[in-house]
Amino acid sequence: MTQLTRVELRRIFSRKIVHLSVLAILAVAVLTFWGLWQSVQPQSAFEEQARRDFEQVHENWVQEQEFQDEEFIEQCLADQEVERERTGDPTIDYGCEWPEPTLEDMLAGYAPPAMADLSTTQLQQTGTLVFFLVLLGGSTATAAEIAHRTLGTWLTFEPRRDRVFASKVLASGLVAIPITALFLAIVLLGVPLLYQIRGV
Fold it and tell me: Are 34 and 122 within one domain?
């Protein structure tokens, strides 16, 4: 590592926005896993809620049966069959009949999300925020160079222009890449650990 790169690293780490960005990334990680802790639970944890919901839904279903119009249902089913034949799609469903709800169907709706889907979603959502925070930290370093009118001096000083530019890029990468990689590792390792702790 050259002297110029060490100087650039010192300059980057002396900026408060970099420290605040790292703290914000940690806060995002904590909030993310707190939210996941609430949502990733074994199905048994939802049985009581599922039973209450089932009773309400079943009561609504019973009330609906009192107002069912058989003629309307027959016409609806006939229209549905015509549309299926016309399009050749046997999966078309007009929702003519509301089958009696079961507790098993209700419990199936409370199944925790698949670990792979959850990991992918978290990486997309929180990764974007981490990218923004890292970009914010890097942009303030460039803005400081412009504000203090040193950028032009650094880059137009012919004998060292390439080395100065390379040191700035290298220093930014040495700060941004480990922070981003650490956060991604926390998400990738934390989600399976959360499932294991929760017994899902």
Answer: yes
